[in-house]
Amino acid sequence: MGLVWEGETRDAEVGIWPENWQALQVFLAMSTQWRVSEGMNGMIWTGLDYSALPIVEARMGVRRAASAELFTRLRIMESSARSELNKAK
């Protein structure tokens, strides 16, 4: 995805809080769903294509009751990733 690892190796363990685990798994599964546009300065990562989200959630066993909370967590991860991806030009 173009992210640069600074000060750690790819194999370093990263702590994930249990309440974020399913959101992280969905975020990773959505990694092929980024919307990207071409601008004068190169590629611009605009965000995830949410039309794929219901399919990903269904395949990953996300309960309907958990979907709204998961969406909030997903958007936080998306925002941080988008900032990093657009910085890495």
Instruction: Give a short account of the largest sheet.
Output: 2 strands, antiparallel
The number of distinct structural domains comes to 1
Q: How many E strands?
A: 2
Sketch the topology as an H/E string, one letter per element: HEEHH
Cα distance, first to last residue?
12 Å
What level of helicity do the residues show?
40-55%
Query: Could you report the average pLDDT, rounded to the nearest whole number?
Result: 88
Parts with pLDDT < 50 across at least 5 consecutive residues: none
Structure overview:
The chain is of the alpha+beta class and 89 residues long. The protein has one domain (18-87). The protein is built from three helices and two strands. The protein has helices at 18-29, 53-59, 67-87; strands spanning 34-39, 42-48. Strand 1 (34-39) and strand 2 form a beta hairpin. The protein is globular, with a radius of gyration of 14 Å. The N and C termini lie close together (12 Å).
